[in-house]
Amino acid sequence: MAGFLSILMYHQVGRFAPMKTHRANYCDRDRFARQMAFLHHGGFRVLDLEAALAGLAGKQPIPPRSVVLSFDDGYESFLQEVLPVLRRYDFPAVLYAISQYLGKRADWFAKEPGRPVPRLLSGAQLRAIRQAGIRIGSHGAHHVRLGEVDDRTKWRELADSKAALEDLLGEAVPHLCYPFGSFDQTSLQMAQEIGYRSALTCLRGAATREDHPLALPRKAISFGDNLIGYAWKLLVKQAPTPALLDWRRKLG
Questions:
Q1: What is the reported pLDDT for 157?
Q2: Boundaries of every domain in the chain
Q3: Which CATH architecture has domain 5-140+201-251?
Q4: What is this structure's pTM?
Q5: Separation of alpha carbons 244 and 210, rounded Å
């Protein structure tokens, strides 16, 4: 089972009414707790992102059953629902924050009537989470689809968010997650020029040494995933999707 790792994609964790759409944006708090217990008792290696990148670069082995926990958008509920569980098992994780939305509401939810609009972490809360050992990455400045905007906007989104988060945290922020999973060749090239060393996508599959560090695939954890489905996502490498294969060919 060595040679690949599962980068898991989470968004909000908490209590939610049953839903038919956007299921990958939500995870029930009880299921999340059971998932983390499963990792702890099932012999999985939950890696810090830096260790994972070293393995993918061939600088060290990728242990069997390797997992990275990633959380998009930076919801305020992370403090109550996620951090205590991660601390229980001493699990590392990476949280991707939107620099111009700190302390605000995720107003892109409001475009769909009836969908609750959650609050995002403030700058002070983000610093506290970093002090608790959670790695912080950039999710852009305004949460725009980088693959659909002009080059000037791309650059501002990538550069401004990195600079703002570095100023807030007092340390380098070399890790990126593309908002909505939207990116193109220009986005990737700009990210590299600006100084990002890794970027997560929404391309589905296990991450391997075939992948470019600025186009890493993930496995989405959905609201409907029971423990059997969760285990299957972790233990089976899965065939890469056509989109992932296409990017591997472009960047190989």
A1: 98
A2: 5-140+201-251
A3: Alpha-Beta Barrel (3.20)
A4: 0.96
A5: 11
